[in-house]
Amino acid sequence: MKHPVDVHVGKRIRHRRWMVGMTQQQLAEKVGIKFQQIQKYETGMNRVSASRLWDIAEALSVPVAFFFEGMDMPMAAQVAPDCEEGSVPADILADKEALELVRSYYAIPENQRRRLFELARVLSDVA
């Protein structure tokens, strides 16, 4: 049976890898393991040892604590399948569309990105 912490850490590995545009194969090569092992980590099937998590964090340019962010919330609160419209799910990074939006957003030049941000804020301000 998968432990919720292993599943959470695996999701965070997958999300960060995806955000930096790295394949499982590329991450595996940087860490010195087979890509199948990365697959198992990302699904929570296998636990990540402390030293391996350290190597993965280094390969993905994040602190080790990144993989545990959000764990202080009860696991039930992290899954919000029936969110009200306008509310943000607790685990927004679980949504591939949201991740793609963030990647695209940061690919926009900074001055245009600021204007887009302001537009989004105005449009989302439901009065």
Automatic annotation (TrEMBL):
Domain HTH cro/C1-type, first and last residues per copy: 13-67
Gene3D superfamilies per UniProt: lambda repressor-like DNA-binding domains (1.10.260.40)
GO cellular component labels: cytosol
Entries under InterPro entries matching the protein: Cro/C1-type_HTH (IPR001387), Lambda_DNA-bd_dom_sf (IPR010982), TransReg_Diox_bact_type (IPR050807)
GO molecular function: DNA binding; DNA-binding transcription factor activity
Keyword line: DNA-binding
This protein's record includes keyword ATP-binding: no
Protein name: Xre family transcriptional regulator
Organism listed in the record: Celeribacter persicus
Upper taxonomic lineage: Bacteria, Pseudomonadati, Pseudomonadota, Alphaproteobacteria, Rhodobacterales
